[in-house]
Amino acid sequence: MTRISTGGLIDRSKTLRFRFDGTNYSGRPGDTLASALLANGVRLMGRSFKYHRPRGVLSAGPEEPSALVELRSGARREPNIPAPVVELFHGLEASSQNRFPSLGFDLMAVNGLLAPLFSAGFYYKTFMWPASWWEKLYEPLIRHAAGLGRAATEDDPDSYDRAHLFCDVLVVGSGPAGLAAALAAGRRGARVVLCESGPLLGGRLLAEHTEIDGMPGPAWAAATEAALRDCPGVTILRRTTVAAVFDHGSYVAVERVADHKPVPDSHEPRQRVWRIVAKRCVLAAGAFERLATFGDNDRPGVMLAGAVRTYLNRYAVLPGRAPVVATSGDDGWRTVADCVRLGIGVAAIIDRRSEITSQQRQLAEASGAQLLLGGRIARVYGGTGLYGLDVEDAAGKRQFVSTELLAVAGGWNPAVQLACHLGGKPVWSEHTQAFVPGTLPPGMSVAGAARGTFGLAAALAEGSAAGAAAADGTGFAGSAPAVPRADDAATTPAPIWFLAGGRGKAFVDFQHDVTTADIAQAQQEGFVSVEHMKRYTTHGMATDQGKTGGVAGMAAMAALTGRSMAETGTTLHRPPYTPIAIGALAGHHRGKDFRPTRRTPAHDWAAEQGASFVETGPWLRAEWFTQPGERTWLQSCTREVNAVRGGVGVCDVSTLGKIEIVGPDAGAFLDFLYINTFSTLPVGRVRYGTMLREDGFVFDDGTTARLAPDRWVMTTTTANAPRVLQHMEFVHQVLRPDWRVAFVSVTDQWAQFAVAGPRARSVIAAVLDAGFDVSDAAFPFMAAGNFTSLGGVETRLFRISFSGEQAYEIGVPSAYGDALVRKIAAAGAVPYGLEALSVMRIEKGHPAGGELNGQTTAMDLGMGRMMSSKKDFIGRAMAQRPALRDPQRPALVGLKPVKAGDRLRAGAHLLPRTATHRIENDQGWISSVAFSPSLNSWIGLGLLANGPARHGEIIRTLDPVRGGNALAEVVSPCFIDPDGVRLRG
Amino acid sequence: MRIPCPHCGERGNDEFFYLGAAGLTRPAADAQPEAWHDYVYLRDNPAGKHSELWQHAHGCRRWLVVTRDTRTHAVFSAVDATP
Ligand SMILES: [Zn+2]
Q1: B41: nearest CA in chain A?
Q2: Which of A75, A312, A692, B26 is the most buried (most CB within 10 A)?
Q3: Tens digits of per-residue pLDDT, B26-80?
Q4: CATH number at residue A464
Q5: Residue A604 phi, psi dihedral angles, 5° rounding
Q6: Domain boundaries, position A391
Q7: CB A313 within 8 A of CB A207
Q8: How many contacts does A have with B, using Cβ atoms within 8 A?
């Protein structure tokens, strides 16, 4: 055990049991998985991606590249979780990744010996040749090796939430700068949202030994949190990471609501995605300590010096015996100071510099360490765990030091990521020896370490000023805020520590196993631009996005090319800042909740009748009604068709779009929308119409009735209902704003049923209230009118026919739909579904979905003559293009198999009978097929080149996918009652 | 993106439906085919200030002319498309 007996933000009164790789351990509330493992002496936590190198924990935060674990098991198993951000809970289960058969002994570590195979650009080179090896060797090899952890294979049992927030000032990060900013803005009355990715507010205050306003850092953070809770406009979101910045002050944050529990509480989401709209943002995201490059810098036991302080101060854990501190500036000395304060002997201190302060000399003496100024690390010992170092002094004298922990302080990189999401490039600051935010997103300011301001007092001052200024900018002015007081000595920023030489691989990307040798190879091969180098070597492309090693790799390239860091530049930062679970982005929109389900008013009735439902867009529509004894859908469908053609049937057509149009210019408006004329339609009549897009192709079709001189009701296809309304709004508001017309969708307000068959009239007469005359003379084909049914309920009746039979559509307000359909059925109408409807429309040659596919013209569909030449309408001009009027264009025909019983297939190609089966001979396709009970044969509609002139010709229908090859006769698309005797009957 | 609807106030772009360039004049019925071709197919693709038609589909359902910078998404104005 390496737990320090006092201090830290852990609760020693409670014990949490957990398992890692099948072994039981215990930790304390307040621990992370990483700190608890270190407290148990576990240093080996994973294997690397390419070389399967043993890896420990490098950092203490979300930047962790090495200690990635699979968390939980079964359906909740989640891969690639950084152990330092996993809050320990009782019963936690985690396992290491990318090792076979075990973490300590990994056969795949032989990859390290094959390093040349996996060098920079290996994706592009190794697997290119010979091509025939791809399928058998390379792909399985990549699939086996790729990725680290395994995703769950079962459905995610948890739910995810989405929520919105609006505020004046968003503060990202709750370190000293963020807390000071939130307090300054909150005290002025601004609505403030403070997001902290961890469970506690305080940021580095929880990890460092500091004092603010006379209080220890964590106590000051707690007191400030209490003060923020007293500000009425302040919202604090803990465990919430701001992941992305979008335009106009839009931010996306992910709250890990229940990730710190074994499972979410009942009705609790696991995570919640916040959309935050903020007038101002103070970015106080802090900084990431960067790794130093030297041979074997990835061995378990090599850690960032700041992370060592986090484990010492926050978690009361000494991550390894007899630590060695290596630093390129003043920062590493804080780790020495913490060790001295906690009574931990330091084995050696290596400072890149030859001069240090007298206080630092005193610290070195107090720590008992050997001091090597101007020294370096010559060799790292320990494969699965550091046990010693060869260190070299300025004179080159080398000696062995026994140690389990090397704390490396190579400087800090401001967390500039969010400042760059809108394209702003970070700029190299010689003063801070780091990239700092450049052009900021509008409304954003940066304070503290994220801006390259590393001192505590300076961060507090910057935070206060930024919070006050942000509040000012949103109308909450006030006097200058009191700046919390801290006395910290000014420090000199550390330069990037690039130690060429040394033995072993020097990694600049731990997660993707990219080394300085890979960077050198990229440079030799001309991939000098950091964006090219990144893609060629995959440097910075892993889940950690190069937070610790990114700048080190760029420094390596800068050194190789002799350019400055400013000239070398850095790669673009894109959202998300840290990985987001796809489930969190999907929220509730998954499975059946992906979109709303729309049910018609007659849904329950249809279900009672044995309906099978099919999704058409969001709607559920009855396909057919299975009756006792029917084994196939075709049996049900055929029975329904026969029932309609031999008697009477009822079909729910409520899903058709219905748009009510009023106003003195409504007739002109319809004339402009449709290819044919409506303004001349008398009141009490209905007409079929076709709409084009402005490019001349068919958009939609349906019927429109005139109910009063200035009142019309239009129907659209089910699929296009929203688009037609939008199109009408565009035409009216943008093209014809002067016309006095108004319209509204009434699709949901009316239930509508088709009643069809030779006995349709008698059913309608029985359904309507007494006293109405619906005889053919009083209410002929294409009549429309207002009636009542169900005892005075407003009822619309249209004598239109899609089936070709004597038919009506009858509509009532939705609330009466169920009662009406039951009355229609009671009057003798047999329920029929979408399939029977489709069979009958194909028998009649009416175009529908398969024909109205966005690529057909009115001429193609045999409706060329409907196009009025006396008026302008949408699509008129473009429909006149010669190519669209070419008779060789595929046009609508009927198709009937030559051999009785042959089946036609939608999608089949149409070829001349004797032509070879080549695409050059393709003359069209079959768009719809049906088994016609009336003809006792499969029939089809198709689009065939010059089709209307080829009736009687035998052609080939070729369906290579399903092996179809039937001869068919080209016939009129109207198979039944071509003179329309039945529908007028 | 946030779009300031002149009727509803500033709203997220997920409430809007995008169509394309604004400011096109539909040719007269008897205009030459070239004019129709230009109207239906030809669009400018400026890097910078650009006026476009957006419909506030999940709001007031008005068509708007939104002028923005295509490089920065800065919105200069949003007015009703009906003059
Ligand atoms: Zn609006």
Answers
A1: A695
A2: A312
A3: 999 999 999 999 999 999 999 999 999 999 999 999 999 999 999 999 999 999 9
A4: 3.50.50.60
A5: -65, -40
A6: 292-409
A7: yes
A8: 55
